[in-house]
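Open question from group meeting: does this chain pack into something compact, or does most of it stay loose? Before anyone orders reagents, we agreed to write out a predicted structure and look at it together. Recording both the input and the output here so the notebook holds the full record.
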Amino acid sequence: MRNTAIALVSLVIVFGGLAVAIVNAPNWPVVQTSFFDVPRIVESMPDLVDGFLTNVALFTIAEVLVLVVALIVAVVRSVPGPAFLPFRLLATIYTDVFRAVPGVVWIFFLGFGIPGLRIEGVPRDPFIWALVALVLIYSAYVSEVYRAGIESVHPSQEAAARSLGLSRLKALRFVVLPQAVRRVIPPLLNDFIGLQKDTVLVSFIGVVEVFRTAQIKQSGNFNWSYYIGVMLVYLVITIPMTRLVDWLVSRERRQRAAGGVR
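Structure tokens returned:
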């Protein structure tokens, strides 16, 4: 009880002090009008939520594709043998290049460069190229998460499967991958939280989503409060996901601790 009271007093002092300092700043009235115009935020919410549906479509489709593409890349990088060297090399180059270059550069490159070639039959819809860019970017990161999970499975697991007559690929499919995927669920969810936020980057190539909607409204009356509306929309979506990841991590730690005790 005493510790709880101390924690509450500490919170009140810290956040109360910050609030007093901000409100008493010389230019606070101007900032409040420009960034915290509540009527404008409320008025813009229906349009922002409508724009956010585009973000939802982007990260929902992208997440499914990333899970598949990243797993393929991780498996290719994990398969031993000289015959698979060219494929391992290509997978390594892909992950290195797409992780080394900022995501917004790839979005610009794919969103403007490929349609700019005007190849017959190649789509020019910016939504499609935004989706392609996000999948390629995040597959590079998620493949490394998968690969870490694969390498965390003790070699004796594969050896036991091989001793039972399973081929290398079947041992990977039925023994190694199920354990690896289960272990990397929390970091996968963390990557997907990042993917949800990075969907706003596609506004740079003309996709009208929540951030682009706020830009259009801001340019009409030079008020920045609409971006606070964007923040609120993302907070409502992202914070529950973050708490879910924390809960999964804690549960996994408890399960490992219980397993260690046994």
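Observations to bring back to the group:
Residues 38-78 form the longest helix (41 residues).
The domain at 56-207 is CATH 1.10.3720.10 (MetI-like fold).
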